[in-house]
Amino acid sequence: MTANRDIVPSRRRPRRQWIGLLYIAPAIALVVAFFAVPLVMTAWMSLHNWPLIGRRRWIGFGNYLTLWNDHGFWNALQFTVFYTIAATIGLLAVGLALALFVERPRPGVNLYRTAFFLPVVVGFASASLLWAWLSNVDSGLFSPLAQLLGLTAAPYDLNADFTPAFWSVTLMVVWKMSGFYMVILMSGLQAVPADYHEAARIDGATWLQRFRYITLPLIRRPLALALILAVTGSMLAFDQFYIILAGGPQNQTVTAVYWIFNQSFVSFRLGYGAALSMVLLGILLILSLVQLRLLRSGEDGR
Amino acid sequence: MTVSTISGAVASPRRRMPRRIDIMSHAAGILVALLFLAPIAWAVLATFKSRSEAAQPPLPPWPTEGISLDNFRTLENFGAGILHHTLNSLIVAIATTALTILVSVLAGYGFSRYRFPLKGFFFVLVLATMMVPFQSILTPLFLILAELKLQNTLVGLVLIYVTLQLPFSVFMMRNAFDAVPPEIAEAARIDGVTGLRLLIHVLGPLVMPGIVSVGLIAFLNAWNEFLAALVLLTSQDNYTLPVLLTAVRAGHYGSIDWGAVQAGVTIMMIPCLILFLALQRHYIRGLTAGAVK
Description:
The complex is a heterodimer.
Chain A: H1 2-7, H2 14-17, H3 19-45, E1 48-49, E2 57-58, H4 62-68, H5 71-102, H6 109-121, H7 124-135, H8 142-148, H9 162-190, H10 194-202, H11 207-218, H12 220-235, H13 239-245, H14 256-266, H15 270-300
Antiparallel strand pairs in A: 1-2
Chain B: H1 3-11, H2 19-47, H3 51-54, H4 70-75, H5 82-113, H6 119-131, H7 138-147, H8 154-179, H9 182-190, H10 195-206, H11 208-224, H12 227-232, H13 241-250, H14 258-278, H15 280-292
Helix pairs in contact in B: 1-2, 2-14, 5-8, 5-11, 6-8, 8-11, 11-14, 11-15, 13-14
């Protein structure tokens, strides 16, 4: 797009064009200072033993060798991938169900949309603090609710064991974020011409057949986009596991970003934290590229 | 549960749905909507319970011993007082909003209306910020702010928040300026209105919807951001609300004042909810424009 416009000869005098640089200068200054330089610095730091105070020392790929044998990091990464799969499935399934429910105009549909979307605008920190309260065993809601429903006799500490704690946090994320995916998928659904469904219906296709052979192929692009956003977002999860579970029980819910945070800002091994960051960055870039290809192939399908 | 209703809605957009399915669909919809709203309502209601009642499980969710502001008072004892930290958060969010709008409008205008060397490169550079998660460059950010004597300051935090907003905001504003018909700028130019005056007096009002979207999303992101604030603000006086409340949630000597936490959560949620309800259309448009294109 940009390239095209550059080729088109401008009617304005060339002298004026340099002013354009002036307009973008503040944005570029910020991006250089707080994005480009730190990115290069991360790579540089990862090759050093770099404590917060004291001398830093060049150690080549030493950090990466340490990292290779760092079970804590690989466990954290494995957990993050597990969480990403669970959260992504939950978000896309619930998001799509909500989108199907609210796509067509009808009485009250705006109220539904607003209600489903409202948790999205609440911050992750707020939602996590809220969930920490609801799930705590002393004065929370979930334990007495479970007792009321006869699921458990004694007060039940949901956050004491990995499985219930993990699914509770995942449920929170689905509650908080599925409205976002609803909006993305809704715009895709609305672009599917109603005639297609009408025609298929006349031919005797069931709802499931129409969903499988008309809706799904036609919303492949927004679906791929939702997938990319859900995967990237989940791979970077931190707030909810830090605030609700503090990485517990037994450090089983420490995510990749959480591990990096601990190494860099609790143990102050800045060089090592940078090496971990580089690895996470590499993984995310590969994931994004793979998924972008998916998005492209979605385009070809049209 | 919703399957039957959806089949009805999709199958016959023009025909009236059978009444029974209609009612069932709305019953299901209302139930799910209430489930989505329940946690928010529970938190807000718990805020107004007395101190002793807030320590009990929230059944029923509403205060039964009369409405009390105890929990807000308790929050006064944390950090430098809840008002101080709310002000910190407000300053950060408002400054981020203002600066994001200023920088992205200028850049969007520059990218849309001017040709200059390396333009494509600079545009990609700004957008590249989106590809690299800021979580992975936090350590150097910490050191750079120290170098600039901005460590542990709200100003430093604002500069980082603005940078994080730029890819989306510049992209959005570039598109907004692109969408203005060239005849309008041309007509203004013939009248002798150019440069900054053209931007402020002629094009500014035309791209106002874009500005509102950019500003709203910048405000909400800055108001809610947690990790960067946790890492970069090292003295308690400077804590924004999410960082302060995480400290409250961690508790004193093993006991956690959940009533105070809920009061804090309510204070954090209310501005988001009000802004969203007031400017819903701009928010959704910004979101879909940023995500879909």
